[in-house]
Design goal:
The chain is α+β, with helices and mostly antiparallel strands. It is built from 26 helices and 14 strands.
């Protein structure tokens, strides 16, 4: 047998090779394109560039950029900075540029997810092949593949979750300060991948510790464990604090206010069927499945896999008495319940029961008291109320109302990643049971067959959402040759997409718009005025802000363009130049089949009435 370090090196190589294959053609366009339609992917490509530029070129904090949301500037704490990727990716950005850095950290996240699961399963007793199979499930599940294609770089940081469980399991078995430090580092890295994972990972870790530590074996173990976990908390705090403090400051100033309606939050709930509905990104049967059942393809592709579920059932049946198995089962079931969000959903829609008016009235009274009077995070139930019908509340509603900071959680489907992790662990145990007492040849053949079946079930290549070429558009190249100035782009709603942030890196000009989870409050007042275009009031504001150029997309205005162009001429604006956008999006085989939805903005850019945003005729006007 190979020694442990030899097995781990082989596992690393296997996951690296499989990642290249399963994400194809990502590596073929390493420095030219990013997976998915133009959207959040280009936001994070811009951040990869900005973090490197601010820290290495300017020697300043990257947490503020004066050229976005001009003239207010952009405090980056208002959105996900995913510093695990942006900061640790700086060497890659410096060597090969921000496009390659984005793709490489995305690719590396699959290796880390698979390897982390493998290491956890090896530690709890699985064989090499069984641990590899568990890692394949977690690394290449539809949850991760869909977020790769949606450009959600922060959500690819799931590899720290199995490493967090591994660290906790080691501490529980033999507490030490070194193991406590490792737990704190893993949780810190998970949190700095995405603030969502700070909440999800914190609840996961707490539940795992509580389950694993009952009954207490001895007073010595108890106090040594408490000391190790307290040290883990201190380390995690030290790792997270530099990024959490700017967020807390923005929140204290009212800049990051969470005023979601209950109906809006409820939209981001998973359905039980989401976990069983076969892989909608599959190149063979995905098209038919997409048309047969509606899912938010960015958030609800939670399929656990037929092969994986069968293996997990075997693993649970054989190993349910083991303490780590029970702990993983508890966190998996809890995460499943929380992923259902605030009310029961089927096919993207909340389920309501028809009841007598008196019953609906009493139910609504109770809900108003619960959500508006008793809740820590108060919210108005009225947005969910329907005459003669009642919703079916899920456990996530109580979490949303009563857990501190839970009202910052918008997308509850993301708890589904913990469900996938639990199934991966159980499936690894299942493979281990199937391989038990077989010859070496039989084990090799059976494990290879299982691995192939798992990968076929989760297969999505070539990229289901296509690719976006990251290139400078002609208007951006022209702007880069002009003196430093401030610009604005119309129609204004066109700027409310992540892909509009990257051209600022190319042009070098200040932009009177931006993109993030929240926008600066001082800028929102400007935005309300600027959005009313073309008007004298908006022009007065442009002049007051010192805006030099207005970029207007003729195709984006559609039939309204003649009126808009005449109005701009009447306001005294003159055309300086015009440019035709070059196509940047190609290779899609899924988005065009999904009906455009406000829940999935990218579908509007691909097949909806905003598709002209991507290939426009841009007229550049000078502001008088």
């Amino acid at each position: 047998m190979l020694p442990d370090h030899g097995e781990h090196a082989l596992a690393l190589a296997l996951f690296a090779l499989t990642s290249v294959i399963m994400t194809w053609p990502l590596v073929a366009h390493l420095n030219t394109a990013v997976p998915g339609p133009p959207g959040d992917n280009l936001e994070y490509v811009w951040k990869m560039w900005w973090f490197k530029r601010a820290l290495l070129d300017f020697g300043q904090s990257p947490m503020f950029n004066p050229d976005v949301f001009y003239p207010v500037g952009y405090p980056l704490a208002l959105s996900e900075t995913t510093v695990v990727h942006t900061v640790l990716g700086i060497p890659l950005t410096a060597l090969w540029g921000e496009i390659a850095a984005y793709n490489l950290v995305s690719l590396g996240s699959f290796v880390l997810a698979g390897l982390g699961t493998y290491l956890f399963l090896r530690f709890v007793g699985c064989g090499f092949a069984s641990a590899i199979c568990g890692g394949l499930i977690y690394a290449f599940c539809p949850y991760r593949m869909s977020h790769l294609s949606a450009g959600h770089l922060p959500l690819l940081g799931t590899g720290w979750m199995p490493l967090l469980l591994l660290g906790i399991e080691k501490v529980v078995r033999a507490p030490s300060w070194r193991r406590g430090v490792s737990v704190g580092l893993c949780y810190g890295m998970l949190s700095l991948s995405s603030w969502y994972y700070a909440v999800i990972g914190g609840l996961l870790a707490l539940a795992y510790v509580l389950v694993r530590c009952r009954p207490w074996k001895s007073r010595l173990l108890r106090w040594s464990l408490i000391r190790a976990m307290l040290l883990a908390g201190v380390v995690a705090l030290l790792v997270i604090a530099p990024m959490a403090l700017p967020v807390a400051q923005q929140y204290a100033r009212g800049e990051a206010s969470y005023d979601y309606s209950l109906a809006y939050v409820d939209r981001w709930s998973s359905s039980p069927l989401d976990y069983l509905w076969p892989n909608a990104m599959h190149p063979v049967w995905g098209s038919a499945l997409t048309n047969a059942y509606y899912q938010n393809i960015n958030e609800n592709l939670l399929y656990l896999g037929a092969v994986a579920l069968a293996l997990a059932a075997i693993g649970l049946a054989r190993r349910w008495r083991q303490e780590p198995t029970r702990a993983v089962l508890v966190i998996g079931v809890a995460a499943l319940a929380l992923s259902f969000g605030t009310s029961l959903h089927i096919g993207g829609a909340p389920v309501y029961l028809r009841v007598p008016p008196a019953v609906e009235y009493q139910f609504s009274r109770l809900m108003y008291v619960l959500t508006g009077r008793l809740a820590l995070n108060k919210v108005d139930y009225g947005s969910m109320r329907r005459a003669g019908e009642i919703m079916l509340p899920m456990p996530g509603l109580l979490a949303y109302l009563f857990l501190p900071l839970a009202n910052a959680m918008r997308v509850w489907t993301r708890f589904g990643v913990v469900v996938v992790l639990a199934v991966s662990a159980f499936a690894g145990l299942g493979v281990d049971a199937l391989l038990d007492r077989r010859t070496r040849v039989e084990r090799a053949a059976l494990s290879a067959m299982i691995a192939i079946l798992l990968l076929v079930d989760f297969w999505v290549a070539p990229a289901p959402f296509g690719h976006t070429r990251v290139v400078a558009q002609p208007v951006d190249r022209w702007l880069s040759q002009q003196p430093k100035a401030a610009i604005v782009s119309y129609p204004y709603e066109k700027t409310w997409y992540g892909w509009m942030l990257y051209p600022q890196r190319v042009s070098g000009q200040s932009i009177a718009y931006g993109y993030g989870t929240f926008t600066p409050s001082a800028f929102r007042e400007h935005a309300e005025v600027l959005a009313d275009w073309p008007s004298q009031q908006a022009l007065d504001r442009l002049q007051a802000l010192g805006i030099r150029y207005v970029l207007a997309g003729a195709a984006s205005y559609g039939d309204d363009w003649p009126r808009v162009s005449i109005a701009m001429r009447d306001l005294g604006l003159e055309v300086v130049s015009s440019f035709e956008d070059e196509p940047i999006y190609y290779g899609d085989r899924l988005l065009a089949q999904v009906r455009p939805s406000e829940d999935v903005p990218s579908t509007e850019l691909v097949s909806g009435d905003k598709s002209m945003y991507l290939t426009d005729t841009i007229y550049v006007y000078s502001v008088p």
